[in-house]
Amino acid sequence: IREEFRKIWKVAAVGLTFSFAIEDCQLLCYRATDVDDLLMNTIGTVVGYVIWVLFHKIFSNSGKKAIMIGKIEPIVYMWLGVAGIFFLYNWRVFYG
């Protein structure tokens, strides 16, 4: 992972953004949304980042042969995941 993505505030911002996207999808489906979900998902993202940092320090030699992927590829995967969950739970709306 590139150094510019290894900042905790950027990780928290991405976690907040995707959590907000999920909550926004719930609003479109007439489901209940809650600010607590947004907060807990963001905290979970930060906790996951901290765990990743700890594992990275413990196993620092394991990532030496990693390949670089495009900047947009992780974002595409995340949005496809959100869209997949949205359509999975709302297939009746689109397909009768």
Protein architecture, described:
The protein is mainly alpha-helical. It is built from 4 helices and no strands. Helix 1 (8-28) runs parallel beside helix 3. The longest helix is centred in the middle third of the chain and has 24 residues, at 35-58.
Distance between the termini: 43 Å
Q: How is the quaternary structure best described?
A: single chain
Total strand segments: 0
Overall body shape: globular
Could you say which structural class the secondary elements and strand pairing correspond to? mainly alpha
Q: What percent of the residues sit in helical stretches (DSSP H or I)? A: 55-70%
Biggest sheet layout = none
Estimated share of beta-strand residues:
under 5%
Low-pLDDT regions:
none
Q: Over all CA atoms, what is the radius of gyration?
A: 16 Å
Question: Could you report the average pLDDT, rounded to the nearest whole number?
Answer: 81
Order of helices and strands: HHHH
Per DSSP, the total helix count is 4
Summary?
The chain has 96 residues and is an all-alpha fold. 70% of the residues lie in helices and 0% in strands. It contains four helices and no strands.
List its traits.
mainly alpha; 4 helices; 96 residues; 0% strand; single chain
SSE map:
Blueprint (H helix, E strand, L loop, with lengths): L7 H21 L6 H24 L14 H17 L1 H5 L1
Helix pairs in contact: 1-2, 1-3
